[in-house]
Design a protein that fits this description.
Oligomer: single chain
Largest sheet: 5 strands, antiparallel
Order of helices and strands: HHEHEHHEHHEHE
Strand content: 15-25%
Number of helices: 8
Structural class: alpha+beta
Shape: globular
């Protein structure tokens, strides 16, 4: 049983992964979660196992008023490749031709991965809460952003626990319309981020931290 299964108390069948995961703490998993840009398709987990893992992480993520406003579209295979083709062709129209080679290389590195999770927020849920709790109306869009951020972090960390590399990308809103048409996305879903994942082909570099004194204050 994985750390996230035990932590969140999933009430469905736990995901069984071919990759054995040692028992580690939550903080260790947080540290293991890095932006991995060199990804491939050499994963031992099946798409079905990864889908279940992603769904569990999103469902277990907290949201304001238990609104459950987060939505996830999981892309594998040709759908994954089609998505990054949309991104590439959209950028082709915007990036100067003399700089496009680097952009193309970057997008192709994402397409080389195993899959992509598109994170959306259901605006009907947000509007419904604004109408139901008018005193907090201005806060619900902000809290919706909190919800998607938590869901993104939870999925990213759950994948890292199973030795799946990932990086979070933000090509919205320039791709929103075509992606919505391609994958039949409801109009009231708002695209917030894209998490591309795959096998780890090269580890992330060393991570540095700013001085604690500039970041934290403690009072007793």
């Amino acid at each position: 049983m994985s750390f996230f299964t035990k932590l969140f108390g999933f009430n469905s069948q736990p995901v069984e992964s071919p990759v054995e995961t040692a028992s580690v703490s939550f903080l260790e998993i947080m540290e293991k979660r890095r932006s991995i840009y060199a990804i491939g398709r050499n994963l031992q987990q099946s798409p079905a196992e990864l889908e279940a893992l992603i769904q569990h992480a999103v469902k277990a993520s907290p949201s304001a008023f238990n609104s459950q406003s987060s939505r996830a579209v999981i892309l594998f295979g040709q759908s994954h490749e089609n998505f990054w083709s949309i991104v590439l062709e959209t950028l082709r129209k915007l990036v100067p031709s003399d700089a496009f080679a680097a952009t193309q290389q970057k997008i192709q590195s994402f397409a080389a991965g195993t899959g992509t999770v598109l994170f959306y927020e259901d605006q009907n849920v947000v509007k419904g809460l604004q109408e139901q709790f008018a005193a907090y109306a201005d806060n619900f869009p902000v809290w919706s952003e909190h919800s998607t951020a938590i869901a993104q972090f939870a999925v990213w960390s759950a994948l890292a626990e199973h030795n799946v590399g990932a990086s979070l990308q933000h090509y919205n809103p320039i791709i929103d319309e075509e992606v919505a048409q391609t994958f039949a996305i409801p109009e009231h879903w708002k695209l917030r981020a894209q998490l591309v994942f795959g096998s780890i082909e090269a580890e992330a570099g060393e991570k540095t931290f700013m001085d604690d004194a500039a970041r934290f204050k403690t009072f007793a």
